[in-house]
Amino acid sequence: MGSLKKTIAALIIFASLNVHGQDKTLMNAFSQSYSYEAAQKYDAAITELNTVYSPASYEINIRLGWLNYLAGKHKESVGFYQKAIALMPAAEEPLWAIINTLTKLESWNDIEKNYLAILKLDPKNASANYNLGSIYYYRKDYVNAKKYFDVSLNLYPFGYNNMLMSAWTNYFLGNKNEAITLFNKTLLYSPNDKSALEGLSLIK
After folding, report:
1. Of 12, 77, 160, 190, whose CB neighbour count within 10 A is largest?
2. Mean pLDDT across the stretch 93-108?
3. Which option is the CATH number for 123-204: 1.20.1250.20, 3.40.50.300, 3.40.630.30, 1.25.40.10?
4. Residue 82 and residue 65: Cα distance in Å, rounded?
């Protein structure tokens, strides 16, 4: 019986040491990847993390998403970020991170989907509402643009971009009184603002 206890104890110690060794290897790989990144040796940083890669690791996938983005490997970056999103579906972090890469790829529909996903998690996120409103604005979908700009404007009523973009959106929707009010508020923030003055000059 004593022999069995000693065997079990030895196995526990061995397992503990093995896990500790794995953690140390992982930490060293991450540490080295940061050193390579600081030296702008992005491929070397990627190679370093690939030595400890696990598809089940959120941390490795999001880090590789970033490093591939820096290396200009945008399709690979998207792939790693998508794995991170799948691993942590309640996290906003990878949804924001992938947008930089999608912007480089000019994948505007996917960017729209990501902002909508962020807003499912955080409906009052001012940045996501503003950016999504901007997407619809430049598509000339002013009805949807107003929907999201309104949220951002309510959260930051004296924010320059919120006021100005909301003013122009209301102008294109034919809401002249709202547009005048918002253009004038924009001028309180930015006196002699060219865009706000132009907007007011168009309203008769």
Report:
1. 77
2. 97
3. 1.25.40.10
4. 9
